[in-house]
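Title: Prediction job returns without error message
Component: structure pipeline
Severity: low
Priority: P3
Assignee: unassigned

Description:
Job completed but the reporter wants confirmation the result is attached to the right record. Sequence as submitted:
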Amino acid sequence: MATTIKFTKMQGTGNDYIYVNTLSSPLQDPIKAARKWSTYHTGIGADGLVLIGASEKADFSMRIFNADGSEAMMCGNASRCIGKYVYEKGLTDKEVITLETLSGIKILKLHTGNGVVKDVTVDMGTPLLSNPGQIATKTGGMLAETIPADGKEYKGTFVCMGNPHVVIFVDDIKEVDLPAVGPKLENHPLFPATVLILHTADVPYFYRNQYPLPVL
């Protein structure tokens, strides 16, 4: 017998996810669902699946699954969307919400008016420039160091915001074939947990195991 699961599609700065309120619609296999639903053309189409749930430590909890089914620790854009969702769906009347994630408790501040959430800000915590569990260097970090990939060399700096990131400064973003080099950097041996790649010129972003978003 088929089970009906209610979902909501939301995006924050173009980072779009499928949201399921597991308080009312429990989901037994989120990995399978993320893979199936995130697929464009044959599924709903999204960067992944986000589960909103109960928490013993915070007001709500968040689990986030990438389009390939892998579980992420944290996403700022998804957190902001959750703030809007729980308030406008009547799950809370708080304008400061605590959210349990795999990278700790995050604080969401809602800016509301006439019962509508206009903006949400999230305290992501202090950025970490080293985390030995996420980068395989002697120091557990990387500061403007060379990363060979696709026959070229890139200067990268490691930053952890829960999820591991590598920031690469380039002179001309148009010269970077992001869909080609992104996966090679993402899966580089230096990053055992894979990594999100950020080329800073016009701020294009390569999300792990996802389609690259257009330049903002």
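Comment from assignee: result matches the submitted record. DSSP finds three helices and 13 strands in the chain.
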